[in-house]
């Protein structure tokens, strides 16, 4: 591989405390998956990613297929869009099984590059006057 086409390696989240820490970060929702992002404030460390599929999404074969598709999408396309010093958890939804690979990778890249939406302040949280 030449230098300009070289893919960046992405670390993995491997244990429960790492996954739980990312839940405190920002959430970016989409139709195929939920992306949770946490800035570890360590800009010199590589980005890390973890994958979650709940039992509600299907049997073991389907859940493993979802995780394999997401891992490959991160390996091929989205790893370069991940920021150093950040942790990412991708929570798959069942729709990821029927989505095309191109649709899935574009949604992942879009979620990685999007900014979080501002939350409502406590004063404007209620819709009732």
UniProtKB/TrEMBL annotation:
<keyword id="KW-0378">Hydrolase</keyword>
<feature type="region of interest" description="Disordered">
    <location>
        <begin position="107"/>
        <end position="129"/>
    </location>
</feature>
<comment type="similarity">
    <text>Belongs to the RnpA family.</text>
</comment>
<dbReference type="Pfam" id="PF00825">
    <property type="entry name" value="Ribonuclease_P"/>
</dbReference>
<comment type="subunit">
    <text>Consists of a catalytic RNA component (M1 or rnpB) and a protein subunit.</text>
</comment>
<comment type="function">
    <text>RNaseP catalyzes the removal of the 5'-leader sequence from pre-tRNA to produce the mature 5'-terminus. It can also cleave other RNA substrates such as 4.5S RNA. The protein component plays an auxiliary but essential role in vivo by binding to the 5'-leader sequence and broadening the substrate specificity of the ribozyme.</text>
</comment>
<dbReference type="InterPro" id="IPR020568">
    <property type="entry name" value="Ribosomal_Su5_D2-typ_SF"/>
</dbReference>
<keyword id="KW-0540">Nuclease</keyword>
<dbReference type="InterPro" id="IPR014721">
    <property type="entry name" value="Ribsml_uS5_D2-typ_fold_subgr"/>
</dbReference>
<keyword id="KW-0819">tRNA processing</keyword>
<feature type="compositionally biased region" description="Basic and acidic residues">
    <location>
        <begin position="110"/>
        <end position="129"/>
    </location>
</feature>
<keyword id="KW-0694">RNA-binding</keyword>
<dbReference type="InterPro" id="IPR000100">
    <property type="entry name" value="RNase_P"/>
</dbReference>
<keyword id="KW-0255">Endonuclease</keyword>
<protein>
    <recommendedName>
        <fullName>Ribonuclease P protein component</fullName>
        <ecNumber>3.1.26.5</ecNumber>
    </recommendedName>
</protein>
<dbReference type="GO" id="GO:0004526">
    <property type="term" value="F:ribonuclease P activity"/>
</dbReference>
């Amino acid at each position: 591989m030449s230098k300009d086409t070289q893919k960046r390696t992405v670390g993995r989240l491997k244990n429960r405390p790492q996954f739980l820490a990312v839940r405190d970060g920002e959430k970016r929702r989409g139709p195929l998956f939920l992306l949770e992002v946490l800035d570890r404030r360590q800009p010199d460390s590589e980005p890390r990613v973890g994958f979650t599929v709940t039992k509600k999404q299907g049997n073991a074969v389907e859940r493993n297929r979802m995780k394999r598709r997401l891992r490959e999408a991160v390996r091929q396309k989205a790893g370069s869009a991940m920021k150093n010093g950040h942790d990412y958890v991708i929570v798959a939804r069942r729709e990821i099984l029927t989505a095309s690979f191109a649709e899935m990778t574009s949604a992942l890249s879009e979620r990685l590059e999007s900014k979080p939406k501002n939350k409502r302040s406590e004063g404007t949280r209620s819709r009732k006057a």
